[in-house]
Write a structure and sequence with these properties.
This protein has 376 residues and is of the alpha/beta class. The chain folds into two domains: 4-56 and 296-375, Alpha-Beta Complex (Aspartate Aminotransferase, domain 1), CATH 3.90.1150.10; 59-288, 3-Layer(aba) Sandwich (Aspartate Aminotransferase, domain 2). The protein is 38% helix and 16% strand. The chain has helices at 4-14, 46-49, 58-70, 83-94, 105-120, 137-141, 146-149, 167-173, 197-210, 278-308, 329-338, 361-375; strands spanning 25-29, 32-35, 40-43, 98-102, 124-128, 159-162, 178-183, 213-217, 241-244, 255-259, 315-316, 321-324, 341-342, 344-345, 350-353. The longest helix is centred in the C-terminal third of the chain and has 31 residues, at 278-308.
């Protein structure tokens, strides 16, 4: 690789400037990463909740390398190695009935909208303020933030936004034309906003009464992030459709769409060239093996963060931690990075911590010490 300055110049010349960034990360191991200057960081961003098993976990990298020696790509015209086993694993862990794979969370959302439309025969959707579901045309339609949605309208999907947590408001807008209600069990991009369980129970009740489908976006919250395989499992509510991605394959691009019994795509209704390929399935199956072992520790690690940061009123479920710091968010993020800890500013002045699930207690203590110094 060229030196950092040359690399930035090449990017500025040839790459569309869709991202604001300055740090150049070149290596990772466990919960730590190193930049182009050799500086080490404790990574409490984890690729935005993607590197669930840490960076370059030996079991995951081994599975990818071994599969790459046998078969890198296999069209979905044929049986794909690992695909059936992974679908079985997802169904067993989540209590859903069938799986379909994608390459990202946004694609999983698009698939969920298609499935809801084709099986209900309805066209409209309801989503929530401050919710984020992706940036494709379909997923963006049900993403609330006007700054990222409105420049691309009209998006071709009829939707209504209701205040997150407002069951009475939801009841007023769901009707016989509503195909589905799209919701995050915890809002991640909004800054780790955790609703009461009664909110999720209320959505389930309204969907049952109206015939609309409860579509649960677990892209950020799934795969053990909150201490359970799905965050909705804390509330004891079973949705009709679930979207997964981010942590499902430890950083290898992959998503999944899960559905209850009786909901599935029929032949020719959906497809993808790359989705659920051999490498992705190998990475995901290895990821499941690692998370199986560490899942019992996730809630305790989350409590450790909360106890250390209690002065700042953290919101947390497992290793998904948010704090409201207001206008100082960017400053705090910068100061943490200067002192070797990566954190992320989400929306509305909220700081978000979503470290690898393998983060150690010593790393948590160090991260919290740096955070407290930055917060003052």
């Amino acid at each position: 690789m060229q030196n950092k300055e040359d690399y930035r110049a090449i990017e500025a010349r040839y790459y569309m400037p869709a991202f604001a960034r300055d740090l150049m990360i070149v290596r990772g191991e466990g919960s730590r990463v190193w930049d182009a200057d050799g500086k080490e960081y404790i990574d409490c961003v984890a690729g935005i909740a993607v590197c669930s098993t840490g960076h370059c976990h030996p079991a995951v990298t081994r599975a990818i390398c071994e599969q790459a020696k046998r078969l890198i790509h296999c069209s979905n015209l044929y049986y794909v190695p690992g695909q059936a086993e992974l679908a079985q694993k997802l169904v067993e862990k989540t209590g859903m009935a069938k799986a379909f794979f994608s390459n990202s969370g946004a694609e999983a959302t698009d698939g969920a909208l298609k499935l809801a439309r084709v099986r209900t025969g309805r066209k409209k959707f309801v989503a929530f303020t401050h919710g984020f579901h992706g940036r494709t045309i379909g997923s963006l339609a049900v993403t609330h933030k006007p700054a990222i949605r409105e420049p691309f309208e009209p998006l071709g999907i009829s939707k209504t936004f209701v205040e997150y947590g407002d069951i009475d408001g939801l009841r007023k807008v769901v009707d016989s034309d509503t195909a589905g209600v799209v919701v995050e069990p915890i809002q991640g991009e909004a800054g780790v906003i955790i609703p009461p369980d009664s909110f999720l129970h209320g959505i389930r009740e309204i969907c049952d009464e109206s015939g609309a489908l409860m579509i649960m976006d677990e892209v950020q919250t799934g795969m053990g992030r909150t201490g359970k395989w799905l965050a909705i499992q804390h509330a004891g509510v079973k949705p009709d459709i679930v979207m997964l991605a981010k942590g499902i394959a430890s950083g290898f691009p992959m998503g999944a769409l899960l559905a209850r019994e009786g909901l599935e795509f029929r032949r020719g209704e959906h497809g993808s060239t790359f989705a659920g390929g051999p490498l992705a399935c190998a990475a995901a199956l290895a990821t499941f093996g690692v998370i199986d072992e560490i899942l019992p520790t996730v809630s305790e690690k989350g409590e450790r963060f909360c106890n250390a940061l209690s002065k700042y009123a953290p919101r947390a479920r497992g290793l998904m931690v948010g704090m409201t710091v207001g206008d100082r968010c960017a400053e705090v993020q910068k100061r943490c990075a200067e002192n070797g800890v990566l954190v992320n500013c989400a929306a509305d002045g909220n700081l978000r911590l979503v470290p690898p699930l393998v983060i150690t207690n010593a790393e948590i203590d160090r991260a919290c010490s740096v955070l407290k110094d930055a917060l003052g």
